[in-house]
């Protein structure tokens, strides 16, 4: 167990990251993916929990292939894991080729221009460096068109470098009945058949917990490893993140008074309110707040669920603790925002967002500890 530089006594919140849950989630996904291999996605600072801790834990749990979004993330990861296979999803930016060679990183090439640049670089360097090829099957973000992929397959002999992986990305796999899933699967299958000697990869977390037809040779789960919900109808695996916020102040509010900016919450009875020392600067979405017109998220105080009230400020938020015994809670205590039955998914829904955004926004002002 190690602690972040902010001492607990000074921090507005405590973030506990359960690395044994992370390892177990990875191993569970590995079992579901078998016989396909299971990679891990570490972009966004390991989905907000910290790249170093996530990388070391997942390597120990058996992961050997990793995906990040950017070269800067890949460099940090290479320093942590000298032997790992590391793919950079966002493509080959101009003038970065040498950095890939130097650290033995794999770009995920997603356009004819990127492929041409990689080929030219390999020829200049006199080294056939493997790269992945991304084919778009319906996301319309990165990747070759299927027609471009066909011409790459036809020109394999002159490609000038080995294809380490052929991949595509599912747009709607969290909704199992979405018709795009079957279309993407069919299109990817047809393209993968043109590269019979190359490992193929299509599935994110949602694809990994779906039918094995989606698994191909390598699955690439991210969110499910970190305890997020992989699919609307599939429960999350073990929670990895627990977030507790310090109670800075407890105050009495008279009936008819308002709490916070904009007077958005009006007390309809004499109330006791706990002011917690964290806000949107710590990554708690403003939309998790409440008003007289709409409820917000909840926090657990002294073992009981209490509603957030009023707007979330930059550094503070308010919780109605009228139902809690006066001596059960005092300033300096912690209230739970994630954990004690409050899931990531639950906070995300109340905030009109997704688990991914909650995790990758987790603030830098918390005392962090890794279990
Ligand atoms: C982020 C990402 C993943 C992981 O997705 P999850 O939904 O978090 O499992 C897999 N593949 C690609 C291309 C990604 O960008």
Explain what the structure shows:
- The structure is a single chain.
- By secondary structure, the protein is α/β, with parallel strands linked by helices.
- It has 2 domains: 19-226, Alanine racemase (TIM Barrel, Alpha-Beta Barrel), CATH 3.20.20.10; 241-370, Lyase, Ornithine Decarboxylase, Chain A, domain 1, CATH 2.40.37.10.
- 27% of the residues lie in helices and 22% in strands.
- Strands 1, 2, 12, 15, 16, 17, 18, 19 and 20 form a 9-stranded mixed beta sheet that branches.
- The longest helix is centred in the N-terminal third of the chain and has 15 residues, at 19-33.
- The mean pLDDT is 96.
- Bound molecules: pyridoxal-5'-phosphate.
- This is Alanine racemase.
- Its EC number is 5.1.1.1.
- InterPro entries: Ala_racemase (IPR000821), Ala_racemase/Decarboxylase_C (IPR009006), Ala_racemase_C (IPR011079), Ala_racemase_N (IPR001608), Ala_racemase_pyridoxalP-BS (IPR020622), PLP-binding_barrel (IPR029066).
- Keywords: Isomerase, Pyridoxal phosphate.
- It catalyses: L-alanine = D-alanine.
What small molecules does this complex bind?
Answer: pyridoxal-5'-phosphate
CATH level 3 topology of the largest domain = TIM Barrel
Number of helices: 11
Structural class: alpha/beta
CATH architecture of the largest domain: Alpha-Beta Barrel
Proportion of residues in extended strands: 15-25%
- Give the uncertain stretches in residue-range form: none
- Quaternary form: single chain
For the biggest sheet, the summary is: 9 strands, mixed
Question: Termini separation (Å)?
Answer: 5 Å
Radius of gyration: 24 Å
The top level CATH class name of the largest domain: Alpha Beta
> Could you give me the name of the CATH homologous superfamily of the largest domain?
Alanine racemase
**Domain module count:** 2
Helix content: 25-40%
What's the mean pLDDT score? 96
> Tally of extended strands?
20
Q: Rough shape?
A: elongated
């Amino acid at each position: 167990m190690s602690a972040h530089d902010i001492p607990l006594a000074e921090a507005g919140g405590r973030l506990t990251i359960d690395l044994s849950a992370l390892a177990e989630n990875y191993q569970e996904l590995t079992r579901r993916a078998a016989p396909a291999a299971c990679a891990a996605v570490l972009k966004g600072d390991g989905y907000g929990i910290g790249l170093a801790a996530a990388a070391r834990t997942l390597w120990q749990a058996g992961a050997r292939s990793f995906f990040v979004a950017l070269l800067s993330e890949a460099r940090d990861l290479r320093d942590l894991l000298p032997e790992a296979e590391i793919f950079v999803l966002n493509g080959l930016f101009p003038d970065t080729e040498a950095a890939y060679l130097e650290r033995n990183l794999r770009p995920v090439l997603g356009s004819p221009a990127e492929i041409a640049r990689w080929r030219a670089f390999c020829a200049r360097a006199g080294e056939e460096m493997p790269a992945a090829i991304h084919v778009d099957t319906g996301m319309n973000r990165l990747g070759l068109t299927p027609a471009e992929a066909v011409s790459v397959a036809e020109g394999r002999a002159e490609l000038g470098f080995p294809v380490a992986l052929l991949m595509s990305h599912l747009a709607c796999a969290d909704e199992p009945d979405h018709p795009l899933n079957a279309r993407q699967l069919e299109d990817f299958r047809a393209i993968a058949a043109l590269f019979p000697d190359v490992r193929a990869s299509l599935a994110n977390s949602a694809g990994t917990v779906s039918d094995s037809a989606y698994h191909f040779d390598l699955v690439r789960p991210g969110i499910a490893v970190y305890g997020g919900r992989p699919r609307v109808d599939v429960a999350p695996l073990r929670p990895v993140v627990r977030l507790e916020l310090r109670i800075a102040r407890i105050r009495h509010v008279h009936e008819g008074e308002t709490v916070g900016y904009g007077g958005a919450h009006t007390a309809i009875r004499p109330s006791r309110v706990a002011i917690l020392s964290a806000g949107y600067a710590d990554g708690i979405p403003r939309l998790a707040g409440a008003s007289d017109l709409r409820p917000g998220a909840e926090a657990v105080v002294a073992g009981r669920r209490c509603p957030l009230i009023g707007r979330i400020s930059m550094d503070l938020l308010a919780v109605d603790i009228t139902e809690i015994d006066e001596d059960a809670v005092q300033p300096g205590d912690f209230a739970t925002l994630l954990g004690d039955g409050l899931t990531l998914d639950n906070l995300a829904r109340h905030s009109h967002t997704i688990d991914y955004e909650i995790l990758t926004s987790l603030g830098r002002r918390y005392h962090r500890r890794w279990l």
